[in-house]
Amino acid sequence: MQMPSQFGHVLIALLFLAITSDLCAQKPNFIVILVDDMGYSDIGCMGGPVQTPHLDGLASSGILFNNYRTYPKCMPTRNALMTGMDDFRKKEDSITIAEALKPEGYGTYFVGKAHGKLINDTKTALKRGFDRTFGNSAGGNFWDHTTRQTMLDGEPWDTDQPFYKTDVHTDYALQFLDENGTENPFFLYLAYHAPHYPIQAKPETIDQYRGQFMDGPSALRKKRFARMQDLGLITEGTQLSPDFTEMENAWDSLPQEKKVYYDQVMAGYCAMIDSVDENVGRVLQKLKEMGVREKTVLFFASDNGGCAEGGEGIWPGYKTERFGRKYQKEAEFGSADSHWQVGQAWTNLSNTPLREWKNISHEGGLSVPLIINAPQTIKDPGKLNEQPVMVMDVMPTILDLAGVSYPETFEGKTLKPMRGVSIQPLLAGQDQELTRPFMLYFSKTTSYIHYPWKIVQKGKKEPWELYDLEKDRSELNDLASEMPDQRDALLAEMKAYRAN
What we know:
Blueprint: H1 5-26, E1 29-35, H2 53-60, E2 63-65, H3 74-83, H4 97-101, E3 107-114, H5 122-127, E4 132-137, E5 151-152, E6 155-156, H6 165-180, E7 186-191, H7 203-209, H8 217-230, H9 244-247, H10 256-290, E8 296-302, E9 317-318, E10 321-322, E11 325-326, E12 340-341, H11 343-350, H12 363-366, E13 370-373, E14 383-385, H13 394-402, E15 409-410, E16 413-414, H14 424-427, E17 437-442, E18 445-450, E19 453-457, E20 465-468, H15 484-499
Parallel strand pairs: 1-7, 1-8, 2-14, 3-4, 3-7
Antiparallel strand pairs: 2-13, 4-5, 5-6, 8-13, 9-12, 10-11, 15-16, 17-18, 18-19, 19-20
Helix pairs in contact: 6-10, 7-10, 8-11
């Protein structure tokens, strides 16, 4: 007997839905965790003092990349991460990770800091492929949701409950994962503000780190460098960059009360990273409870190297006003009314063994650790990878793992191709030589890397320096005068790169 036409159509539709649902259930989930202004070697698996058992666990069961670079400033890094493209591209030429994944059945969620020309606030994120958003733009206060107003789905959000920004970001990330459920895959972008200033943290967490920095930055840099060598993080030939505080004997000349206070500032900074790790643990626990841990790919990185802004000379400094809020130097350290910044000496420690820091295109501004944890993909967990990966590789890697092709057109506009490349082969334990060029810059500082060669200019009026990064990661031996032809060839390459 022939099946009635209408019944047959219904059956076909149900089968199609069942197949589509099954395909969605098989797709991996993605979580990109981005912190703000964290130094190259602060977390435990990079040799730092912060207790980060959850991040260390992700590294030991995933891959730690110690040759990863971002822009030296938060805004261009966030633009490039979200598009796989150079920051100088027009935002109309690109799509975001969320816009690429959403048509493939992904739930897409944005939590935390919105910043940059691409997604400058959480309302804009809703227009760039995200289903739900929570957070605020630029910065603010970790204890007060009204300083740079926190927004939920683009509208002002209020609470009468105790508020600590890092914890509340995680609260909403978990809520969004609950709402998404397990039938459809998800992409969560979790952009914590920590450890960006102001240095504000829970008193009990600050107490865990008090007294650990009383030896001063010079002595601690040497100890950290030795620990990094023991962990195999330092490539052969890399030296510890010069320490200006040691040259000036600056720490020993401080009065004891200043040493105690500056130790406390660094303890507060570490406490902020500690809180991030605690919240990463909450995210991992949620994934286990949902039964999706094994199929979830996690990325963890910072948006640039450690930040030396706001100090008094080389030492920590404070602000009396920011974003319209008043602060007092005498306020309880780490509280809502306290606004301290770590300054140059401690940032130099955070970026051990590298030169410079945020806003500068030397390695201390560009280099941060990258952890990728992909249980169903990584074949050699716990391995350190030294390939020169960059921020623009995140999006193509996600699309590759998701089995999603990058479109030539989107909503009537023609797209430029992504500059980054998928590093899925590295995750799968295959050989992949990443010798392609890339350009990283901010304002008046620029670098161009065609690995292993790097040219860098600290400022518009400064000379171009030349380094062999395989032999001199700390940028101690400027080869520009010795090899002017190599420098000039890279300058010509960079000009062509910029025009492409």
